[in-house]
Amino acid sequence: MADFFQNGVITTLHNLTDRPLDELESELQKFSGRRPMSLVLPSLFSELEGPALGPILDDLKHACYLGEIVIGLDRADEKQFNYAKEYFARLPQEHRILWNDGPRLRAVDKMLADKGLAPTEPGKGRNVWYCFGYVLASGRSRAVALHDCDIVTYQRDMLARLIYPVANPAFNYQFCKGFYSRIANGSLNGRVCRLLVTPLLRSLQKVVGHSDYLEYLDSFRYALAGEFSMRVDVLNDLRIPSDWGLEIGLLSEMYRNYTRSRVCQVDIADVYDHKHQDLSEDNPQGGLSRMSTDITKAVIRKLATQGNVFSLETFRTVKATYFREALDFVERFYNDALMNGLEIDRHKEEKAVELFAENIMRAGEFYLSNPMETPNMPTWNRVISAIPDILDHIYEAVEEDNK
Question: Where on the tree of life does the source sit, at the highest rank (predicted)?
Answer without folding.
Answer: Bacteria
